[in-house]
Amino acid sequence: MVWSRTAPLAASPETEGSETWIREGEGETLSFKVAVRYGKKTDLLKLKNNVVTTLPDTIAYFRRTRRALYAETPTEPVTECPVCGRSSDDAEERAMIHAAVYVQCRSCTHVFVMRRPHGDAISRFYLSDTNYAATYVDKSAAENRLQTIAVPWHAWMVEAFQRARDRAPVSVLDVGSGAGHFVEACRRAGMRSQGNEISEVSRGFARTVWGIEMDGRDFRTVANETRCDVVTFWGLLEHTPCPADFLKAARAVIGPDGMVIAKLPRWDSLSTAAQIGSPDTVIRHLDPMGHIMCFTDASAAELFHRCGFKPVAAWYYGMDVYELITQACAHAGDFSPLVGSGAMQMAAQAFCDTIRAADGLVIAAVPS
Fold this sequence. Notes:
The chain has helices spanning 44-47, 49-52, 55-72, 121-128, 130-137, 142-165, 181-188, 200-210, 219-222, 243-254, 270-276, 297-306, 320-332, 336-339, 342-354; strands spanning 2-6, 16-25, 28-38, 75-77, 92-97, 100-104, 111-113, 115-117, 171-175, 192-196, 230-234, 259-265, 293-294, 309-316, 360-367. The chain has 368 residues and is an alpha/beta fold. The chain has one domain (42-333, 346-367): Vaccinia Virus protein VP39 (Rossmann fold, 3-Layer(aba) Sandwich), CATH 3.40.50. It is globular.
């Protein structure tokens, strides 16, 4: 299969637009009109202040734990592409990050870790690691994170649903809810909102700070127990070996008139370029403990297509300039340029998002 898009040859300063995504394969050509947004104004240094001030220690921690998991524990091969099912025998090696090898499928262009820690080693790590959860359950930063990240997510979700369904959504199920910021944002907006999160640390935070009780069971096994307008995956599908299982389960929740939204890491981005050149100092994006796969726009669209969805909206934004400066500072051993360049980072990132060099993509899709 081959995916392409119709888009202007020159970038526009506009932050909203429309594209047609085209799939050619299996003897047919399909086209999808997609409403597109570029950019999201975020003061990353304020949002990640607790990380910036401890970057050397954080980098050392990530290097130690990731190498221990990938180099010192049993691994098992990923025999086929998680999106299209093609054998991984002829996949092309693209990067090695903390002893983990990322390869790219020659058919759908999806990128994934070739050998993963055996069994549920990664899941056990996240369920027990309080260091990982600290970024998302920091009480002092909770309200800022909600306003900066979750509230814009909610607004975009409502807009995408209204455009596709000609009505506002009234209910949402957020899968992989973390500390419950998005669930709380939806609740404050008057929506009936539920969260699904397997981490007890994160569920405990949501319970204490927001007063939200989230479901700790595996979403794939309980999807038939609820119905709602929207199912969201804000940064989940790249963590699981079987992303298609979650999308198929979501179909049972939303029925024929709902919507699924997923935020995904993009391979074709400035962050990827920066990290390929600095594989020993990666702490986000191509972190093989969490992002065991990374999507191209084509592989993301193909995954939704194979699970019975058609894309209707897309949102490009990322942290690429922050990432590039972080890696440069790590090489120099001096993080002061990162701390003192916040305004420049935001302006440069806005341009990066406009030209689709961002490391993040949000897709909204409806049953096809």
